[in-house]
Amino acid sequence: MQATIKDIAKATGFSVATVSRVLSNKKGFFSEKTAAKVNQVAKELGYKKNMSATELVTKKSNVIAALINSTKTNFSDSIIKGIQDKADELGKTVIILYAGDRDARAQKKALTTALERSVAGILLLSVDLSPENLTLLKSARTPFYFISITFQDTALPCITSNDHGIGYLATSYLIRQGHRRIGLAGLDFSDSYTGKLRLAGYQAALAENQLSAHSEWVQAGDYSYEAGIAALDAYAQNSELPITAVIAGSDMVGIGILNRASALKIPVPQKLSIVTIDGTDLCRIVQPPLTSVTQDFYKMGYVGLERLLENAAGITYTQSELTERKSVLAVKK
Amino acid sequence: MQATIKDIAKATGFSVATVSRVLSNKKGFFSEKTAAKVNQVAKELGYKKNMSATELVTKKSNVIAALINSTKTNFSDSIIKGIQDKADELGKTVIILYAGDRDARAQKKALTTALERSVAGILLLSVDLSPENLTLLKSARTPFYFISITFQDTALPCITSNDHGIGYLATSYLIRQGHRRIGLAGLDFSDSYTGKLRLAGYQAALAENQLSAHSEWVQAGDYSYEAGIAALDAYAQNSELPITAVIAGSDMVGIGILNRASALKIPVPQKLSIVTIDGTDLCRIVQPPLTSVTQDFYKMGYVGLERLLENAAGITYTQSELTERKSVLAVKK
DNA sequence: GCTCTTTGGGTAAACGTTTACAATAGCTTT
DNA sequence: AAAGCTATTGTAAACGTTTACCCAAAGAGC
Predict the structure, then answer these.
(1) Does B69 touch chain A (CB under 8 A)?
(2) Percent of chain B whose pLDDT exceeds 90
(3) Backbone angle region of A311, left / alpha / beta, with phi > 0 → left and psi within -120 to 50 → alpha
(4) pLDDT digits (tens, 9 = 90+) for A92-141
(5) Which of A91, A129, A266, B323 has its CA 20 to 30 A from that of B212?
(6) pLDDT digits 0-9 by tens, B277-306
(7) How far is CA A325 from CA A48, A269, A284, A286, B257, in A?
(8) Domain HTH lacI-type: where (chains A, B) (predicted)?
(9) Could A285 and B255 be called an inter-chain contact, meaning their C-beta atoms sit closer than 8 Å?
């Protein structure tokens, strides 16, 4: 028996209309005295607005759904923090929905949950929608915005890092430190567009310095810790490492490489320098702390929500920057 | 203009009642032919149920709200995974709400969001509600259940690890490994009951072995990385460490201790053994990997949801176990 | 004293579902 | 043939809000 505005109306002697007006603060439609009385009775009765009813009649809601990918939530935290902060400023409330991990069924469930509740908008944090789910999303009238994911289809509204720039930044930094044989590890070049762009950035930086990558320098992977392990094992097949530095596709890849290197007694950074892509807190807590191309995840969330609400189209980029820690050694020429 | 059941009714020639029955699959109230037709038209029109309307009339919902604490989400991930899996089995959907970090305002907002949407139940993942928010929660008729948090008030329904047991387990393990001077670091003994219980378990194990703790052995903190750093600095004030092993209040504390130790050239585990409490993936990725008392977070989520729905009262404990990695050295007597 | 605003508040419809209750048709029983 | 089922469908009320529209009283201006 939740108390309703009817109960308040009865108790105060006012009509439901008046009660509704003071409770939703429609200024200028009631007197102070009325408001005071209504509010007091509402409190006494433990009144709580029934959002279903409100949303049913107003046909709008101030909730934003954020769909997240169940894996790799280590940077989602920052994105969500950004979203949350912006939402607070705007008086929106955000609900987070798990969209599984490349699982079309789970994606669909999360998507319909959001759509059925007619949320004001949907944010998708690195969720790579299956084609039919993408169609579903597009056919709904709910605004949506992707965060931290890059598509071939540039028409999809999203905010993300410039992945070409990331590859370029990491590579040219290592070149400036004197490295010439530079690996690239743990990126996925097949279905993910992100991987291809970073690779292109890497190659561009190399080419600009009259270098070119040997094929064994680039080791594909799935951005995981295990991919890092596998990459280092591939590099370490011969007694001499073919590279002096490696760019890891993610922090976890970087840590995998680091740990495998230490298991194989390859000192980092003396024998192998590492630059990691992402720059989450994980970089700080390993030893040596990993130099990284740090993405501005917080900002992605913060301005992502902004963009969603202004119905922006196209791609927005956030700035990445190189954060020097202790995993890169400058080599003397 | 989302299509509604009215539109489908018009298009098919049936009444809204029939359409509703087909769409919500009230078996035995319609013929196959009818169902086929209705479903087809629904699909054509891109019909999506309006949950607000449904919830308004049925006064029930199958969504579970999970409130989480914005910090320390590193183990929340496992808990959420558990919740999610159970929810999938049960056909429930879960929405995650951020409840800030010991911020009564944010807590209240998350709480009212959940309450206003009349969710089927509320799960609170290590959120330490302020007194007034607790009252608010209790006064609502919505079932709730705490996960991974212990209260003095044993009437509060929750599932968590046995914190006394954790302290005892870690300590007695170290004693069995031959340690006699054992520290305890990074726990909060003031407002959090958890810290007190773990301390009691620690003391119990010590006492059982005719040992007792020197006051400088236990260093309070707030479960953070920085608390670990501070604890080690406290231990390392004299040239000789007062302890041979330390129990870290959380993985982050353990890593803080580890890194500070390595900065000070104190080899782990040769000069200092570390047992960490939590046992998340973080333990695996540092060097040496940290031996831990591993809590079963996944299970907390999984059975937490179960318990919530069966309206269980009182405390349920999940089992913790000691996971040996590489941060503890057995000392010869 | 009369009309015109302004202020405060009431009436009732609408939002999209679900479901109790009725109604019909076609059977089966007796 | 009357009565009773069963299967299928329809009618309409209900859920708790919001809000367009209406109304009355109180001043304001003449």
Answers:
(1) no
(2) 83
(3) left
(4) 999 999 998 889 999 999 999 999 988 999 999 999 899 999 999 999 88
(5) B323
(6) 999 999 999 999 999 999 999 999 999 999
(7) 51, 11, 8, 11, 19
(8) 3-58
(9) yes
